[in-house]
Design brief:
The chain is globular. It has a single domain, classed as 3-Layer(aba) Sandwich (D-Maltodextrin-Binding Protein, domain 2), CATH 3.40.190.10. Helices cover about 45% and strands about 20% of the residues. The protein is built from five helices and six strands, in the order αββαβααβαββ.
Amino acid sequence: MLITFSLLLGSTFFARAADYILVVHKDNPVDRLNPQEVKDIFLGKKIKWGNDLPITLVMNTNDEIHERFTRIMLQKSPVQLSVYWKKILYSGVGMLPLAVKDDEAAKSYVGTHKNAISYITEDSLDRQVKKVEIR
């Protein structure tokens, strides 16, 4: 019974994982990224696109989506991610990513900045931005 409950709980967790999507500018040639690339980008380890242009990170700080994205894709809590980025900032190695308050702000920024990447809820996707597959 405990195993069944764990499986049900796990399937609910992973079903919710699809609630967010990655988005880039519609002219960005990137169509898909693997999970490790996503992690490297959002942890500042991959800082340039394949065309050698700098990646601009846009963190969607809406509590629900930010929590899911950081825990699932980055294997960190939002607090751990914040501490991680503050260490980078205070060590002088890099700058904090841009933080926006919700999906609309993320789409607005990404839609007007060709090198930007962010995450939004799937139902917020529109023509301002392009969805990037995670495979």
